[in-house]
Amino acid sequence: MSDAETPRADTEAQPGVGPLTPHLREHFAELxxxxxxxxxxxxxxxxxxxATRWVxxxxxxxxxxxxxxxxRVFIVATPIWDRVLLRYQHDxxxxxxxxxxxxxxxxxxxxxxxxxxxxxxxxxAERADLLEQxxxxxxxxxxxxxxxxxxxGEPPADIIWKALGLRIAEPYLQDPxxxxxxxTPYLPPAEQPGHEPG
Length: 198
Known about the structure:
Elements: H1 22-35, H2 43-55, H3 64-77, H4 80-83, H5 88-99, H6 110-133, H7 137-149, H8 159-169
């Protein structure tokens, strides 16, 4: 399963609420098959993209709407000759990892950042348990390996933290020449198509 095929979020599949949706089950079945042939030492690396993409919408306290807009503004403002460079993804990752540290007044809040990272790690751990329950033990193991290998990390250098920043910006990196073409700006769950009030 390629990184591009990994679902960014699925609001129907929350730990403690219900089983994986058919869409997520299909993707994780492919990943499970792939991971069975991979060495244990490589599992964390394979988990980084699907884990951070899956939990992105469900991290308590993460203002996705604001950071989505910051990612869009940064990428659109970058000259096209810079956007097409191979290093540009690294530039965006660095920028977003720094911006996630800031509040709405552009002031660094390291303690809040640590709380966000802890919350993200907690959700990843919950998703690992869900995967185990749903019959994907190797994928669950990879999520836990990611948590083990990144234990003690601090924003903005932590690998999960940086990956979350890149996940936010990804929709605007699909087409370097037209970063807003095809990108779907973040919408809160209540504004997403098909949402039904509880």
